[in-house]
Design brief:
Layout lengths: L20 E4 L9 H19 L3 H13 L10 H8 L3 H7 L10 H10 L3 E6 L3 H11 L7 E4 H4 L6 H11 L6 E5 L2 H9 L4 E5 L15 E3 L9
Parallel strand pairs: 1-2, 1-4, 2-3, 4-5, 5-6
Helix pairs in contact: 1-2
Length: 229
């Protein structure tokens, strides 16, 4: 595990000559998490309250309780699961506010940098394929990836070691010459446990929420800090 050193949060020194493979999370890493937070914590409760004839705050508490009950499980990320649970057309509702899907500052420049330097670039996400399709359409970043891998393909979330073993089988990457970016502590810990040499935390997944360093890892606020100056 790459341990965070005092005063180095904004001074990330990476030896790109010794990195061949770039593994990237999607929500909160490449894309602003604001869309997902707005969708699940504001828009869904609003629609759910109208559908079930309850007030917004009660609806929000119900939604949060349901979400929390699935934390860390693949169902937490499964849009088909939530469609059945909430009896809502999740993809239609996502499309309603899809204008909020935004690429993080410097993420596009980073993807171009990695591509120009002949790195293997993989999107490695717990996001459901239906959601990925919408986000690729809105963000226009799909063309940068050698492959897009969803944990739903394996039936195992990134929090579990079996996911990383399956990923290794699929793309055959050298852990010593790879780098992984994510904003979730449990996922970062799983990647570090799998012995990926460079594991980097995103400390500001949403533009609407203050920066918060992820303990135990080297942190960056944005991808501008990961490229050679």
């Amino acid at each position: 595990m790459l341990m965070e050193q005092p005063g180095e949060e904004n001074n990330l020194k990476l030896d790109w000559d010794h990195i061949d493979t770039v593994l990237l999370d999607l929500d909160g890493t490449l894309l602003d998490l604001n869309f997902d937070l707005e969708f699940w914590l504001e828009y869904i409760p609003k629609v759910y309250s109208k559908q079930n004839h309850i007030d917004f705050q009660t609806a929000k508490e119900i939604i949060i309780s349901k979400i929390n009950s699935q934390e860390g499980k693949l169902t937490w990320y499964c849009l088909d699961y939530w469609e059945k649970q909430l009896e809502l057309d999740i993809m239609k509702l996502k499309s309603d506010i899809s204008h909020l899907i935004q690429v993080h500052d410097h993420a596009l420049r980073f993807l171009k940098f990695a591509k120009d330097n002949n790195k293997r670039i993989y999107l490695v996400t717990n996001a459901h394929r239906k959601g990925i399709k919408l986000k690729m359409k809105m963000s226009k970043i799909e063309g940068f990836f050698d492959e897009i891998i969803s944990s739903h393909d394996f039936g195992i979330p990134k929090q579990q070691q079996k996911f990383w073993k399956e990923l290794d089988k699929q793309i055959d990457f050298n852990k010593e010459r790879s780098i992984f970016f994510d904003d979730s502590l449990d996922v970062l810990e799983a990647a570090a446990k799998f012995k990926i040499k460079n594991v980097i935390a995103i400390s500001k997944p949403s533009t609407k929420i203050a920066k918060k360093n992820v303990p135990g890892f080297r942190n960056i606020e944005n991808f501008g800090e990961s490229m050679p100056q």
